[in-house]
């Protein structure tokens, strides 16, 4: 029988990342490739950022990430956000995850560490939530250089 998995989701620009977290031995795979084998070093550092905060807890979970769309940095940020949400048990409906590898006190402590490290990892990109500014450039003005 396969172990129970929890699925977590995040987006960045046009990239979408789905994360499966299970009890395991510390393997991290992105699109079925070990995270250490990702060729772009900056993208690898971004993806593994939330996992650095885990410390010895990292060896207790296996993380599998599926990423689609966008460029490699957009995918890296989407994967990092989804991983941090998976580690803290973040759900949109604020429901408690049933089969999570970590207990609730561990997750709340981890959530505080992740927020201190980078507050955008759990909440996503703040610019997505900003409303359109009144009096700002309209569609015509953005497209055209001049009116003449």
Task: Tell me the layout of helices and strands.
Blueprint: E1 6-12, E2 15-23, E3 28-30, E4 33-34, H1 41-52, E5 61-68, H2 72-88, H3 104-117, H4 120-123, H5 139-143
Helix pairs in contact: 1-2
CATH topology: Ribosomal Protein S5, domain 2
Run of helices and strands: EEEEHEHHHH
Kindly state the number of beta strands.
5
- Tally of structural domains: 1
Number of helices: 5
GO molecular function: RNA binding; structural constituent of ribosome
Protein name: 30S ribosomal protein S9
Keywords: Ribonucleoprotein, Ribosomal protein
Pfam family, one: Ribosomal_S9
Question: Explain this structure to me?
Answer:
- There is one protein chain.
- This protein is of the alpha+beta class and 148 residues long.
- 35% of the residues lie in helices and 20% in strands.
- Strands 1-2-5-3-4 form a five-stranded mixed sheet.
- The radius of gyration is 18 Å and the shape is globular.
- InterPro entries: Ribosomal_Su5_D2-typ_SF, Ribosomal_uS9, Ribosomal_uS9_CS, Ribsml_uS5_D2-typ_fold_subgr.
